[in-house]
Amino acid sequence: MTATAERRRRATPDSHDYPTRSYDLVKEFVVALAVVTALSLLLAAIFSSPDDKAITMSGWAKADPADVVATAAGELAGTTTSATYGPPYNNASEGQSVLGLKLQKWGGVGIPINSADLVLQPLRDVAADPGLATALRVWDTLQASAQTRLATAYSDALAKAPDGNPARVAPGRYGPVPSLTSAFLRLAASGGLEGALTSSGTFYGGDQTRAMLLLSDGAYLEDQAVADHLGGDQWGMMNEVGNYPGQPWMWLYTFWYQVKPFSTSDNADAQVWALMMALTVGLALIPWIPGLRDIPRWIPVHRLVWREHYRRTQQS
Amino acid sequence: MSIAFTAGKYISWGVVSTSVTNLLVIALMVLVFILALVLPFPHAHEAPPAPHGEEDPS
Amino acid sequence: MSTVSTPGHRSWTGAVKGWTSRTLPPKQVLPERQPAYVASWIYVFGVLTLTALLVVVASGLVLAIGGAVWWHTSSIGHFTNSVHLWSVELFFACMVIHLWGKFWMAAWRGRRGLTWVTGVIAFVTSIATAFTGYLTQSNFDSQWISGEAKDGINSIGVGAWFNVLNPAQMLMWHIVLLPLAVGIIAVLHIVLVRNRGVVPPLGDEGKEVPR
C-alpha cells in the first residue's frame, strides 16, 4: 500500500459523501432561543440573584472597631499584607515566582502605594481636630525608625489586649500612634473614609484599589467571607453567598489550592496559574496528543450518539 | 424567594467541599448529558430519503 | 469561484469575495439538509450555548441602560440581573455539555482541530468575562472576589495593567473588550463548523461511505 493510499484508508471521510436528511437549522435555533429565554426568565423569577451589600468602612468600624484600630496600627508599623506585599504596590518583597520565573517582580511597581498613607492621608484631610493635628505633627517629626518602633509596640500591645480592645491596652510608650488610630476609627465610623481613599485629589473616584487594600488588610472582610464558605481553602472560588450556584466551572482551578504542595506553598497563586495554563493548552491540543485523543475510541460513548448510523450501516 | 438570606448548605468529603447547590447543578448537567445520549432523537430512525450530493449536507 | 474581474487583473474586492465564497459557500451557510448521522440530542447543545449567549448579551444590554449600580436600587434592575446570572449559568452548563459531547465524538477529526481549539479559547474567554462580571457587581461578592483575585493576577506580574481592584477598569473589560472577544471567537468557531461540516461517525475511517 502506498503512503497516499494508507493515508486515505485511515482518513476521516468527507461529510459531503454521506446521505442526508432534512434538518431545519433556523427552526432549531428559534426553538433553542425560546427555550433558553423561558428558562432564564423562569429561574430568575423563582430564585432571583444574590446581592449582599458591600461592606462599608463605617459598617466595619461599627461591627469590629478593634479590627479597624489594629489594621491602622499595622499599616503604620508596616506589618500588614499590603505593606509587605511587593509588586505591583511596593518593593517590600519580591512576590511570587514559578519555575524560577520571578513574574511578580518583573511586573514592577505599577501601582505604587505606601500603606502608612492609607491611614495618614485621610487623617491629614480631617479639619478641626486639634488633638489629631498635634498627633500628626508629632508623628511627622519622628524618624522613620522611631515611627515603626512606636507603631509596632502599639500593634503588639493591641494583639495582647483582651479582644484587641484599644481601651484595655497595657500602658506603654506608643507616642502619637493611639491618637492617630483612634482618630482613624472615628473617621471610618463617620462614613468619610471611602471618599478620602478613592477620590482624594480627584472629583471622580472610580478606582477602589486603596480602599480595597485597606479593607483586605483587616480581618473583618475575610471573617465574613469564610462564614459564607468563600475562603480560598474552602473551595471558595466556585462558591456563592447563600444557596446560590457559584462558578462550578472553576472546580479544577480551586481544587489545586486545597491540596499539597499548593495548599502550603508561598507561591501557590503563581503555581496554580501556571498549572492551569498548561492544562488549558493541553485541552486545546488534545486533537494532536496521542493517547488523549484516542480515549473516545477506547470508551465508546460515540456508539450511543451514532447508534442509528451504525445500525443502518450494519444492515446494509 | 429568600435563599439569599439563608446560610448556604455545604457538604464535605475528605478534601472535597461543595455547596449543595453547585453539586445539584453539576448533577443536573451530567443527567442532561446522559439523557441527550440515550433519548431518541425525533425521526432518527427514518431511512435517509435523499441521495447525497443533491443538496449540500454540511 | 467566480469573480468578474479580468484575468490577470484581480481586484482586492474580487480576492476577498473569492476567499469568502470559498470559506463559506452560500449553500453551506444555511443548508436545509444534514448528513443522516446527525441524529442525536447531543447536537443541540452548540446552538443552546449560542442562544444562551444571546440571552446573556440581551440582559446585559438592559443592565447597561440603567448603569453599573442601577440593579441595587430597582426591582426591574434586580430581575434583569437575575436573568443575566441564570442565563450565564445555562450558558456554561450548555457549553460544558457541548464540550463533553464533542470530546466523546472525537469531533476534531478530519481537519477539524482548529474548531476544537477555538472552542477551548471561547470557553476560557467566557470564564474571564464571567470573572470580570463578578468584579463589577459593586457588592460584597465583588469586594471579596477582587481582594482574593488580585493575588492571582499580581503573582504573574500583570496586576498593574489588569487591576481587579479598579471596578471602573473591570467594567470596561466586562462589557466591551471581553464580550467582543467572546463574540469574535464564537463567530470564528461557527464559521469553522459550517465550513468543515459535521464530523462523520467514529469508525468510518477509510470505509466506503454507504450511499
Question: Can you walk me through this structure?
Answer:
The complex is a heterotrimer of chains A (316), B (58) and C (211). Helix content of chain A is 54%, strand content 1%. With 316 residues, chain A is mainly α. Chain A has three domains: 17-48 and 285-315, no CATH class; 57-226, no CATH class; 228-284, no CATH class. The longest helix of chain A is centred in the first third of the chain and has 23 residues, at 25-47. The mean pLDDT of chain A is 92. Chain B has a domain at 3-36. Chain B contains one helix and two strands, in the order ββα. In chain B, strands 1-2 form a two-stranded antiparallel sheet. Chain B starts with 9 loop residues before the first strand and ends in a 20-residue tail after the last helix. The model of chain C has no long low-confidence stretch (mean pLDDT 92). Chain C is 67% helix and 1% strand. In chain C, helix 3 packs antiparallel against helix 5 (75-104). Classes of the chains: A mainly alpha (316), B alpha+beta (58), C mainly alpha (211). Chains in contact: A-B, A-C, B-C. At the A-C interface, helix 1, strand 1, helix 2, helix 5 and helix 11 of A face strand 1, helix 3, helix 5, helix 6 and helix 7 of C.
Set down the secondary structure blueprint:
The complex is a heterotrimer of chains A (316), B (58) and C (211).
Chain A (H helix, E strand, L loop, with lengths): L2 H8 L9 E3 L2 H23 L9 H7 L1 H13 L25 H5 L7 H10 L5 H12 L2 H17 L16 H14 L2 H6 L10 H9 L2 H8 L23 H6 L11 H17 L10 H4 L3 H4 L1 H9 L1
Helix pairs in contact in A: 3-4, 3-9, 4-6, 4-8, 4-9, 6-9, 7-9
Chain B lengths: L9 E4 L2 E4 H19 L20
Antiparallel strand pairs in B: 1-2
Chain C lengths: L11 H12 L2 H4 L3 E3 L8 H23 L3 H4 L1 H30 L8 H23 L4 H16 L11 H30 L15
Helix pairs in contact in C: 3-5, 5-6, 6-8
